Every structure is written in structure tokens, then in C-alpha cells.
Amino acid sequence: MQTQATSITVVLTQVALEGGGFQIRRAFPVAGLSYFDPILLIDEMGPVTYGPGEGIGAPDHPHRGFETVTYVLDGAMEHEDSHGHRGSLRPGDVQWMTAGAGVIHSEMPAKEIMEHGGRVHGFQIWVNLPQAQKLATPRYQEYASEQLPIVTGPGTWARVIAGELDGRRSPIETTVPTTMVHVKLDAGAHLALPIAAGSNAIVHTIDGSGRVQDTALSDHRVALIANAPATLELTADAGGFEALVLAGMPLNEPVARYGPFVMNTKAEIEQAFRDYQAGRFGEIARTN
Ligand code: MN
Fold first, then answer.
1. What does the alpha-carbon distance between residue 18 and residue 100 come to, in Å, rounded to a whole number?
2. Is the domain defined by 7-248 classed in CATH 2.60.120.10?
């Protein structure tokens, strides 16, 4: 078997509108890049500061065939779904939702932000599911920041959202082996981050500038590292560097996607529409 070389591509995130019309910056899917196996989407939500009554979220909508991950940096988000899950996410909290066979959910800024305004900043990531688990029973994992390991070193801080670092493991159970780490490096600091060799890795700039291996990253730049090495070498420039790092093993399966559904074939997408329209995803039970 021939070993493929690592390749690093830097993309600039593009501004787009999502849900009820809130602004995001999207690394992909965009024209020319549908997904980076097994990651199907990565959106930076905000940062945006809403005035009173200006908050916009994503009201009731379906998903099937993958997992949605929400990670909050600033502000607060509220979530409820058709399987009776309900939660509120604050800075550093994560929600890992396996849509599987199908959910309908809503994702909105928290009530106090809707009423009084406030800043919202975070990430939404879609992780694909393998064919055998696309119709799995929906599952919901939610952890507060205090429940996620923090690993520090000289000038480095890392929150382990998924996977493991220095023997500290996140409680999140991923279907596809996935690493997700939020890193903050002081000026000139360096962090060697172990990931699964051969995975597809993403380093998404949040603030400041730095390097992954020898590739420079700054404002709105995202490194896509195909066939990643076993260690990502992250180094901050003089202003410090904050980034979200993701790595997942590629599924190497066909991807058929349309909006909120991601399956393996077009026929399965059409079935998803029929099931959704027939009410088979359930509905969100609301008492008011
Ligand atoms: Mn959603």
C-alpha cells in the first residue's frame, strides 16, 4: 500500500446566512468544497452583538444522517428537539447531537439575549455518520465547560471537547473517532497536539495568528490537513493564537446531501423528505 503524503490547504471562510437569517462564516460547504470527510460543515456563528429583540436563531428544522455539534464561545444558546431533549449552552459548553434517523430541533439565542440583547459567538459542526449508523436512534450529549478537561502547559491552554490530550479524555462519545480541541496559545507558545495519523484535520482560526506545521493562519483562515500526521505542531505568533482543532477519520463513503439531510444515495435523500413530510421525525412538544 502506498502511503499518501500530508497536504495542507488554507481556505478563507465565506460569509453566509443561516437559520432565520443569522450571519455565519463558513469554511465549507461552499462552491468547490462540499465536505472534508468526515466533517460535513463548519460554521463560525458570529461574533455578533444583538440589540434587544434582534436575536436570530434557527427555529424548528429537521436533520437526518449525521451529528450536529454546537460549541459556544460567547453568549448562550437554547435548544429543544422532537425527542424531548432541552438544554442551554453557555461559554465552553458543548452539545453533541446524533440526528441519526431524524430529529426536528430549534437552536436559538437564550431568552435573556433575545430580550435584552448580547454577544453571541460559537461554532456549529456537522460530523458524518457511517452508512450503517445513519438511521441510528437519535442521541443527545450535552456537557458544561466544567465537565470538559482543560490541559495547560507553558503558555498553552487546551479544552478537550472530544477525544484525548495528555491522558485527559472528554466524556463525549463520538460515533466516528473524532478529536476536537479548543486551544489558546500565548505569544510564541507551541503545542504538539496528537491526533490519529491519517485523519483529516482542521485548524480553524478564532483569534490572533500562528502556524500549523509550517503553514501560516490568521483572520478567518482555516487549514484543511488531508492525511494528517500523528502530531499537529501549533505555534503562536507575537499576538497569540486561538483556534479550534478538529480531526476525524475519513469514512470514504459516497455522500448525497440536500440541506439538512446527508445520506449515501439520492434515493435515501428522497426518502428523508418523504419521512419528514409524513411527520415521522415527530414534533417538538411545547407547553406554551
Ligand atoms: Mn440544526
1. 22
2. yes
